[in-house]
């Protein structure tokens, strides 16, 4: 059996696309994991950092906005290159 790496089978452009997709998936996974870890720890964060409940709630809003902003910029290259409109 010939065991060639997947990168050797794919054309160069497809390798770059596959790597970009893997990177994008890892970034989304890390953001979801951070949310999963951060939300249950809010009472501890509030106590240890001597924060008010409203300040901790504001940190959640800042995190969600910060996680959503890059999505706006990720959409620009496909749109500029004539990407398909899904909506």
Protein architecture, described:
With 87 residues, this protein is an all-alpha fold. The chain has a domain at 39-74. Helix content is 75%, strand content 0%. It contains five helices and no strands. The chain has helices spanning 6-9, 12-38, 42-48, 53-74, 76-80. The longest helix is centred in the first third of the chain and has 27 residues, at 12-38. It starts with 5 loop residues before the first helix and ends in a 7-residue tail after the last helix. The mean pLDDT is 76.
The secondary-structure element order is HHHHH
> Mind describing the biggest β-sheet?
none
Q: Tell me the distance between the termini.
A: 45 Å
Which blocks of ≥5 consecutive residues have pLDDT under 50?
A: none
**Outline:** elongated
Please count the helical segments.
5
User: How much of the polypeptide forms β-strand, as a percent range?
Assistant: under 5%
| Fraction of residues in helix | over 70%
Beta strand count? 0
Average pLDDT score: 76
**What Rg is obtained from the alpha carbons, in whole angstroms?**
20 Å
Sheet/helix structural class:
mainly alpha
Index terms:
87 residues; mainly alpha; 75% helix; 0% strand; elongated
List the helices and strands and how they pair.
Elements lengths: L5 H4 L2 H27 L3 H7 L4 H22 L1 H5 L7
Short description:
With 87 residues, this protein is mostly helical.
């Amino acid at each position: 059996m010939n065991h060639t790496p997947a990168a050797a089978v794919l054309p160069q452009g497809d390798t770059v696309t596959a790597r970009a997709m893997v990177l994008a998936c890892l970034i989304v996974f890390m953001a979801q994991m951070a949310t999963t870890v951060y939300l249950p720890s809010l009472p501890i964060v509030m106590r240890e950092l001597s924060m008010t409940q409203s300040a901790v709630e504001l940190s959640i809003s800042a995190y969600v906005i910060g996680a959503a902003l890059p999505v706006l910029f990720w959409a620009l290259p496909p749109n500029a290159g004539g990407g398909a409109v899904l909506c």
